[in-house]
């Protein structure tokens, strides 16, 4: 096991998961609005299995999809962080992702936490590139990607292999952020 990095921002703490986060994570995954751009809701046992995978990845790597809490406020807002997608063509890539409870929307938390995760990825981990992907209709996440200076890879649109053929959410758009572009965005926000 590797110690899990804790990242802090002005308003948030990105930290290792705790057992007491699991009920809030189950609720988040049963919220139809939160899961709007996913193929379905996660039942409590599926949510727990997802949390177990996330926690295992964090303990094996020291980084991953961190639990997000508000400083002096909500103890669990959801997760934001870095991950290695387990499917081709991204098996050697690192992606950034987020899933926050509805009460955390509209405050800029996803962007704020994602900026901390990107900084960790590009500095502490020495990554050359970080990707993100979502369905074309997920405008809120795409706006976050734009605010992070990520660029849509028009040729990178793909059919998600874990979503059934013909499903309306199977097509995904791909965004990329190079270390160089990230560095430039810090100098010229």
Q: What's the shape?
A: globular
**Which bin fits the share of residues in helices?**
25-40%
| Secondary-structure element string | EEHHEEEHEHEEH
CATH hierarchy class name: Alpha Beta
Tally of individual domains: 1
Put simply, the count of helices is: 5
User: What is the fold named in CATH at topology level?
Assistant: Aminopeptidase
Low-confidence stretches: none
What would your notes on this structure say?
There is one protein chain. By secondary structure, the protein is α+β, with helices and mostly antiparallel strands. The chain has a single domain (7-187), classed as Aminopeptidase (3-Layer(aba) Sandwich), CATH 3.40.630. The chain is built from five helices and eight strands. The protein has a five-stranded antiparallel sheet with strand order 1-2-3-4-5, sandwiched between helices. It is globular, with a radius of gyration of 16 Å.
